[in-house]
Amino acid sequence: MVKYAREPDNGTKSCKARGSDLRVHFKNTRESAFALKGKELIKAKQYLEDVLAHKRAIPFRRFAKHVGRTGQAKNEGMPSGVARWPVKSAEFLLNLLKNAESNAEVKGLDVDSLYISHIQVNRAMRQRRRTYRAHGRINPYMSSPCHIELVLSEKDSGVKAEQDGKSRKLTKSVMAKKLRSGSVSKSA
Asked: Which helix (H) or strand (E) holds 17?
C-alpha cells in the first residue's frame, strides 16, 4: 500500500487516488491543483472542462513569471490577471478526479456530497534526453514530471444549535449600535 502525505480524518467517508511519475509539467499541474483545492467534485470537474474549452482560466500564483495576463483571471480571484489554460495538466487532473469518483462509488459514498479535501503535487525524478547544438555540442533536454495525490471526502451535515428561550445579553457596544440604528428600544 502506498503512503499518502496526509491521511483523511474519517477513512470510511473518504476515498483516495494518485498518479506517480506522470509526464506532465510540474509547475502547471501545481497551479491547476491549487485552483481545485476545497472545491466540490462536480464543480471541480466542470471547472476543468471549462479550462479545456478556454471558457475559464487557471490563475498562476507561485510560478507566475513571464506568464501572460487575461481578463478571465479576474473571475477566478486573481486581480493581477495572470492566468493560463494548461490543457495537459487539466486532462490529467480530470482523469484522476474521475478515478477517485469511481473509487467513491465502489466504497458506497454519496458522489454529490464529495469535495476535494486534500490535493498535492510533488516533483518526480526528471527524465533525461539530449538536444544537439551548434559546433558539435550537446545539451540536456529534461522533462519535469510529477506525482499527484488527492483525497475526496464527504461533507459533514452540520449540527444545528438548539433554540433556547432565553435572549442573549448584548455587549455595550452592540447595544449602542442597535440603539443608534433604531432597531431596539432602550427598555429591551
From this structure: strand 14-22
Q: What is the pLDDT of residues 137-159, one digit of tens each?
A: 999 999 999 999 999 999 887 77
What does the pLDDT read at residue 185? Answer: 66
Say if residues 43 and 51 touch (Cβ distance below 8 Å). no
Distances (CA, A) of 74 to 16, 46, 51, 65, 122: 32, 18, 15, 18, 27
pTM equals 0.81
The DSSP line for 54-90 is: TSS-EEPSSS-TTPPB-THHHHTT-TT-BEE--HHHH
Give dist(CA 117, CA 90) in Å, integer: 18
> In sequence order, what DSSP letters do the residues of 107-159 get, joined into one string?
HT--GGGEEEEEEEEEE-PPB--EEE-GGG-EEE--B--EEEEEEEEEPPPPP
